[in-house]
Amino acid sequence: MGLPGLASATEAGRSCPTSHDLRELHRAHLAAIPFDNIDLVLGTPVSLEPEAIVDKLCLRPRGGCCHEHNLLFGLVLERLGLPVERLAARVLLGGTGPRPRTHMLLKTRIGKEEWLCDVGFGSDGFLEPLPARNEAEVTQYGRRFRVKAHDHFVWSVDVLTRGEWVRLYEFTHEPRPPMDFTVAHHFLSTHPRSMLRRAPLLQRLRPGSWLHLRGDRLRRVTPSGQVTERVTEASLPGVLDEFGIILSPAELTDLTSCFTPPAATEMR
Question: Which of 81, 84, 198, 204 could cross-link 211 (Cys pair, CB 3.0–4.6 Å)?
Answer without folding.
Answer: 204
